[in-house]
Amino acid sequence: MSKDxxxxxxxxxxLEIIKCNVKEQExxxxxxxxxxxxxxxxxxxxxxxxxSNYFFEILDGQFKRLIYNAAWRVxxxxxxxxxxxxTDSNSKASVDxxxxxxxxxxxxxxxxxxxxxxxxxxxxxxxxxxxEYRFENFIEGESNRLPYSIGRSLADNPKQxxxxxxxxxxxxxxxxxxxxxxIGLAIKEKTPRRRVLYVTAHQxxxxxxxxxxxxxxxxxxxxxxxxxxxxxxxxxxxxxxxRTQEAFFHIFNHLKMNGKQIILTSDRSPAVMQGxxxxxxxxxxxxxxxxxxxxxxxxxxxILLSKIRRDGLSFPDEVVDYVAAxxxxxxxxxxxxxxxxxxxxxxxxxxxxxxxxEQVITHTMRQQNRTITLDDIIASCCHHWGVAPDxxxxxxxxxxxxxxxxxxxxxxxxxxKLTASRIGLLVGxxxxxxVLHAIHQIDNxxxxxxxxxxxxxxxxxSLKSR
Length: 466
Known about the structure:
This protein is an alpha/beta fold.
């Protein structure tokens, strides 16, 4: 058997492994068009051909570990993947892009991500910032003008303390992570010796837990107290984590007292956050709180045009206008629609036109209905029964308030993936047993009170149709 034929059969075995681990549509869209060009036995290099840069970004981003695991099983543990990207279908021009590093480097990369405290040879700190999230490709508009201008001010004057902490909040996908990374990158470029660190709240929590388990808690605190600009993404993730909050409280105080900058992001403002100690919430409000709002149609259009030009694409104006008018929940949704348009165009050999855009958006919106959040449920129930949200979080035992509170807990259990403990925590700091009791009470009432059952049904319908 020739080497080429052997390598093609090996790649087919890789595809079989991948097929068992992804949805059928994902496999057909992203993996069937991917072909093996060559496998270099001496250098352990697997060269794959993909139709466009979008395929490379998706495969080496969303599916990279799956592809490497399959390649390592079939071609060997030292396999390195390189993608050949077709840049011009007429001239057959292409460019090769390297994927992830070898298995050993991949493990090291994962370790370094989870342990930023680990020192490098020259004792330099990895800021863990995403180099693609820069001010240069952050599109300013009416909905993000204040946060953007504050971010620019922080980047230009890293030592100023007027906006400390800078608390940035907004719905998922509106650009919070992009903006705080851009601030961090700009600070690092302006003052290279400044110790800048970006971590998610989940990473912070994992590091804290490990420090307790390994009896290195003092080292954990000492490390974070050396940071000049600390950026923590999704701070709401430590809600209810009393010990983690205690550690962060001491770190916050030390950094604040020593003039170090703190930047936090959350999916909600400090005014409505639950599961946090009052002393922390008070500190969140010390500096400046700004909301990153959902992009309006004009901003959506500018974001689309920027991404299209940056990636060397060409979309008809009517397609850009249609997407901007119909996809405005988040920037991620916009990018997802562009990726889908490219994928559909390649797989089905269709031009990108208004008809294809309508088909893709209809399909995408049907499959990816907006996730219902606890905040949505609270807002709908309070509006329906004329109750203030603050009353829901209070200790009030008035019958009408208890009714709304229990209904919220019931709907949260039905419509979200939150556990009973998490629901209780976010609805006024109540325990698991209280939530289970509320759900039981509502179940009984739904079975005996037709009018109430209809009201709950109407609320649920309105939430799902948003």
